[in-house]
């Protein structure tokens, strides 16, 4: 079985979303707390450290940990940095396969593949649209 990775656009989107989240948290800290107090400085330093650790350490490690592969019997999805997790769906138990498109799909060429089977659902975010549709067609032929 050959394992594949997500496109590099996925980590860029994750980092942009993390930057927006931390910008919102910084803004709340700056406007809701009294500037110059020890609590204000502490929260700014903690948020800054979390932003740096998340953006430059955790998200790249998480991106490199994600891989998926399919053969004639199973679909395997691996992910996780601190606690690695492997999800396996047997092909003969797959009920339906769906490729979700969002409004930015024509621009970014990224989609979400959802595979539902007896016992669980597997969702792979930020796959390239062509690969998601090809994998969906391959999995639908059971």
Tell me about this structure.
The protein is α+β, with helices and mostly antiparallel strands and 142 residues long. The protein has 2 domains: 9-64; 80-140, no CATH class. It has 4 helices and 6 strands. Strands 1-2-3 form a 3-stranded antiparallel beta sheet. Strands 4-5-6 form a 3-stranded antiparallel beta sheet. α1 runs antiparallel to α2. The longest helix has 28 residues, at 38-65. The radius of gyration is 19 Å and the shape is elongated. The model has no long low-confidence stretch (mean pLDDT 92).
For the secondary structure, the number of strands is: 6
Structural class designation: alpha+beta
Query: For the largest beta sheet, what order do the strands appear in spatially?
Result: 1-2-3
Helix-strand pattern: HHEEEEHEEH
Structurally, how many domains make up the residues?
A: 2
Largest sheet: 3 strands, antiparallel
Helix content: 40-55%
What is the straight-line distance between the termini? 17 Å
Number of helices: 4
* Proportion of residues in β-strands: 25-35%
The radius of gyration over CA amounts to 19 Å
Mean pLDDT: 92
Q: Given the C-alpha coordinates, what overall shape results?
A: elongated
Which parts are unreliable, with pLDDT below 50 for 5 consecutive residues or more? none
SSE blueprint:
Blueprint: H1 9-32, H2 38-65, E1 67-70, E2 74-79, E3 85-90, E4 94-100, H3 105-108, E5 110-117, E6 120-128, H4 129-140
Antiparallel strand pairs: 1-2, 2-3, 4-5, 5-6
Helix pairs in contact: 1-2
